[in-house]
Fold this sequence. Notes:
The structure holds 2 protein chains of 2 kinds.
Chain A: H1 5-17, H2 22-34, H3 36-53, H4 65-73, H5 81-86, H6 96-114, E1 127-131, E2 141-146, E3 151-156, E4 166-172, E5 180-185, E6 192-195, H7 198-207, E7 209-216, E8 229-234, E9 236-237
Antiparallel strand pairs in A: 1-2, 1-9, 2-3, 3-6, 4-5, 4-7, 7-8
Chain B: H1 7-18, H2 22-44, H3 47-64, H4 75-94, H5 125-132, H6 137-149, H7 153-159, H8 164-183
Amino acid sequence: MKKTPERIESLAAEYVLGSLKGRARLRFERWMMESYRVRQEVWFWEEKLSGLAAVVPEEQPPARVWPAIQQRLWPEEMPRASVSQLSERRTGPRWLWPSWGLLATAAALVMAVLLVQQPEPERFPMLSGAIVQQDVADPLWLVSEAGDDNRLRLRPVAASAAESDKDYELWVVPEEGQPLSLGVIPVGDSVLQIELSDAVRAALDKSRTLAISLEPVGGSPTGAPTGPILHVTKLYEL
Amino acid sequence: MMEDTSQDELMGLLGAIARQDRQAFQRLYEKVAGRMFGLCQKLAGQQELAEEALQDAFVRIWHHASEYHSDRGSPMSWMMTIARYRTLDLMRARKVRQTAGDEALNHVEDERAGPLDASMQMDGSAALTGCLDELSSVQRDSILLSYYRGFTHEELSMALSTPIGTVKSWIRRGLLVLKRCLER
């Protein structure tokens, strides 16, 4: 495979993202060793994509991690817990490092307390998904949660109009009980914003499942799906 | 303490670690372990693997601090990258399957920024967020699921009930759009 700039560009991005796997990954690693230009491209993505890590909440690791790191780096100075029982009578430098470890824990706790009162930044959409049909490359509709004000956004992509006297109707499928209607949905260019009641929202949070049925124009007359269920999709969390 | 931490300070600590300064190493751990562990946890979705990855990452940082240079990005992003790669490696080695919507996965209730002052935020995270808006939703979602959850193409294809070829091209095209935007 030739190292064209385009190929380097796209492989480097996928390498950093982690989606380049197996033999392709190994081959690309060889390219990295051979070429500064390739490494630079990788560094570009590492730096840029790590911006995504900035919004991940901080989490203090358990206190055992720091001693474990020291144990791995300096095993001769940092006896394992089982060994330390036997060497209890020993004094001196051997115990310096374990006590450093304890200090670190104390410091981490103090930090954890200090860091709680920070401003809350914006959020990404929490739930998202696509309603797809086999053998159709593009999704029919895309669903995403719009902010945190209990609204769902539905955007038609490749959905084509229902038969002339029919409409598509969107449902939340709860874990138990009857589907809950979210109304008739469009196929054109318009994005539909659906306001969720608290009950519907709770059901969706639990089951994360949506369905689309084919109904008479204006939607199901009974409040439950009457026509065939055309699609069922599971939303996922980001 | 934390409030004063800046990339310069991290750079200084890495320099000291390159000279085998263990106290600097511990200070670095105190400053960045929480950030790194948050990412490992989110990716792995399980504590044990996240802890192991964090250990691996710090062992790597100790041994490779001298290889850090500013062409590789800010010190923080260099270290976060190490943590992320180690987590992904362990996930792949242990065949941890990511399944969207699995109750066992960590619930990420909100995406609040790490509780650090602006100086420690990775450079360009705001720019990146802006550029993400230029992607189509499927492109953005597949990239974010790969980044945050370590989804493979196969897992994405299952999660989005979409053929693998389509998922691949969403990612490939999405990354290119992202790059054009970031380069502007």
